[in-house]
Amino acid sequence: MPRLQEIRDHLLARLQEAKNQGRLGEVAAIEVSIAAADQKLEAMQRMAATHTTVHLGMPDFRSSAGRTAPEP
């Protein structure tokens, strides 16, 4: 998430620069990119909040991996 947050911050800086210079087409495109980044960040935060670690235990192979000796 830190990388996506950094990208979003750079987009905000570019948006302000484009507004200051009156580049309306670029403003619109950057706003779309910011909205997409916001949606992705929200989805990542929801996913991080709902996923938990599940302990599956240690597998037990004793019954299936035992050695057998041939009968004399």
Layout of helices and strands:
Elements: H1 2-21, H2 24-50
Helix pairs in contact: 1-2
Describe the protein's architecture and organization.
- By secondary structure, this protein is mainly alpha-helical.
- It has a domain at 2-49.
- 65% of the residues lie in helices and 0% in strands.
- The protein has helices at residues 2-21, 24-50.
- Helix 1 (2-21) packs antiparallel against helix 2.
- The longest helix is centred in the middle third of the chain and has 27 residues, at 24-50.
- The chain starts with a helix and ends in a 22-residue tail after the last helix.
Query: Which regions have little confidence, pLDDT < 50, spanning 5+ residues?
Result: none
Strand content: under 5%
Q: Indicate the percent of residues in helices.
A: 55-70%
The succession of helices and strands, N to C, reads: HH
> What is the rounded Rg?
27 Å
Structural class call reads mainly alpha
Mean pLDDT: 87
Q: Specify the biggest β-sheet.
A: none
User: Could you give the count of β-strands?
Assistant: 0
C-alpha end-to-end distance: 65 Å
The total of helices stands at 2
Q: What global shape is seen?
A: rod-shaped
